[in-house]
Specification:
It is built from three helices and 40 strands. By secondary structure, the protein is mainly beta.
């Protein structure tokens, strides 16, 4: 083994070389990224395509033979944090991130090629909302790009793992962090920021992937005098701590040359102290990738008191001849917009219990609030549904364009008791502005659902005692893959919902499954490792017996 220590800006990165990958070619072009879905031997973009459908045309593993799926290899990440990473794959090499490491693996054998370890300063926060995680990387031009918990963006050489450049985004001591997987759009590296519950002012940034130079920053909370500032009517400085984090990866339409990115809730949760709609929090943004200029916006939860982010993945599709963008929002409604102009086409309810609004007015695009929302804003105690966990949390859904079906992990009848209080701002400390407690159902807390995106009609559902926090994968083999917090990696019949196969990985799964092909053989990969938001905040005693520890698991059919 060879060890190479590189010092950058007071941080130490250790590169550990393992097995060489002979003959690898480290070059990815814009065209390769655009055509990611056409080559099942590679995974070059977060979400298995710029549209984040998480659907594969592979059918070698299918509903008839999935019972023969077995582990091909497993690789230890040597990390006991929750693992939410999305694996990338190029020329037979798989790239996986944790909060403090990046690894390159031989995709067929699981052998380590190199490992780059980030050694954070001692004062780096050990708790971030919600979980010390990293969700993945972007690759382009022979480099791998990722973010760090202390709010840096870095570029690594894909062949060696050595650091090429590192750029500081902002001072993490004020509550900012980065857990997001960046993306490449029109030659620009774009990334978001975390820290919405710490009183930050959210933003998106574009970087030059060659040099690390920051090209632009677009704030999601406007300063006085800027467009949208009129929606912050307190007359004070609430906008400076207004939230609007951008902690999940956006999508990109190369034909429209438009990036779509969701923003988080406004801060604090005490909406009465920040009257107005509070743009651009809880909003879907359409942006110009070269400049960060906002083309259009659609706000899902104006003046949000309930932590209903709009950060969830934005899935691109064509439905009834229209180019649409879809989001299963935390607020319990499923939004379908025309992505050329932001026009609302549909917004059905996709979970059973919603009491803060009776629906979304298709003419105005605004929610039709109930007295639950009104009372919450005036300081009364309420119990609202869905809870701050949302009808769906961060875990990404999948969309099968052939059947026009969305597969989505939902929370089942979980609510929250809520009362607004006066927030106290201290840099780097939670800035809630509310007292809250969970309102749990008597039975199951989660459900995997197959739904029609335009109507919300449920085609089938699989209930689970614990909510599933893993991503979902759809395949042409009539399969849906996901994972449970108690460790099961699961496959379902995409048409009927019948449970077909399960394998216990030994630790909870909150990561994102992918599938790929090599030499005519289909593989399915998922990262396990218990933890993240539900484990941190639910107090669910059933998770106490789930061992920590992350691994990369790869499966294939037994010959």
């Amino acid at each position: 083994m060879k060890y190479n220590c590189i010092k950058r800006l007071g941080l130490t990165a250790t590169i550990i070389f393992g097995v060489a990958n002979a003959g690898a070619v480290y070059a990815q072009t814009a065209d390769e990224l655009k055509n990611d879905t056409s080559d099942p031997s590679s995974i070059l973009t977060y979400g298995m395509g710029y549209g984040q459908q998480r659907h594969s045309s592979l059918d070698m593993v299918n509903a008839d033979n999935v019972g023969k799926l077995a582990p091909a290899w497993a690789y230890s990440l040597a990390d006991t944090r929750g693992q939410e990473s999305f694996p990338m794959l190029y020329d037979g090499v798989m790239y996986v991130t944790t909060h403090n490491s990046t690894v390159a693996l031989d995709a067929v054998t699981g052998r380590q090629i190199w490992k780059s370890v980030i050694e954070y300063p001692a004062e780096t926060p050990r708790v971030a909302c919600c979980g010390i995680v990293n969700r993945g990387s972007a690759i382009y031009g022979g480099r791998l790009f990722r973010t760090t918990l202390d709010a840096h963006v870095i570029a690594l050489d894909m062949e060696t793992g050595e650091e090429v450049w590192r750029t500081k985004s902002i001072d993490y001591k004020a509550g900012y962090s980065m857990t997001v997987a960046p993306t490449i759009a029109d030659g620009v590296l774009i990334t978001g920021i975390s820290g919405g519950e710490y009183g930050i002012r959210g933003y998106l940034e574009g970087y030059d992937p060659d040099t690390g130079e920051r090209l632009w920053r677009t704030y999601t909370v406007p300063a006085p005098g800027e467009p949208g500032s009129e929606t912050w009517k307190d007359g004070g400085d609430a906008w400076q701590r207004g939230g609007g984090p951008t902690w999940l990866t956006g999508s990109y339409d190369p034909e429209l040359n438009t990036v779509y990115w969701g923003t988080g809730n406004a801060a604090s949760w005490n909406a009465g102290l920040r009257p107005g709609d509070n743009l651009y929090t809880s909003t879907i943004l359409a942006l110009e990738p070269k400049t960060g200029a906002i083309k259009w916006h659609y706000q899902t939860s104006p003046n949000d008191p309930f932590d209903y982010d709009a950060t969830n993945e934005l899935v691109l599709a064509t439905i009834d001849g229209r180019k649409v963008i879809m989001q299963a929002n935390r607020n319990g409604f499923f939004y379908v917009l025309d992505r050329t102009n932001g026009e609302l086409l549909a917004a059905p309810q996709f979970i059973d219990k919603v009491n803060w609004a009776t629906g979304i007015d298709l003419a105005t695009g605004r929610p039709m609030d109930t007295e639950v929302a009104t009372k919450a804003r005036t300081g009364e105690q309420v119990t609202y549904y869905p809870s701050a966990f949302g009808g769906k949390n961060w875990s990404p859904m999948a969309y099968n364009p052939d059947s026009n079906t969305v597969f989505i992990n939902t929370f089942k009848d979980v609510g929250m008791q809520y009362k607004a209080v006066e927030p106290q701002y201290r840099p780097g400390v939670f800035y809630f502005g509310a007292e809250f407690a969970w309102a749990w159902p008597e039975g199951d807390r989660g459900e995997l659902r197959a739904i029609d995106p335009m109507t919300g009609d449920v085609k089938w559902a699989d209930s689970s005692a614990l909510p599933r926090l893993a991503g979902v994968l759809s395949t042409a083999g009539n399969l849906v893959f996901t994972g449970g917090q108690t460790g099961e990696f699961e496959a379902f019949n995409a048409e009927t919902g019948e449970a077909l196969w399960s394998f216990n990985t030994g630790s909870g799964i909150v990561g994102q499954p992918v599938t790929w092909e090599k030499d005519g053989k289909q593989y399915v990969t998922v990262v396990n490792g218990a933890g993240a938001v539900y484990a941190l905040f639910s107090g669910d005693e059933r998770l106490a017996t789930v061992p920590p520890g992350g691994n990369v698991w790869t499966f294939a059919l037994v010959e």
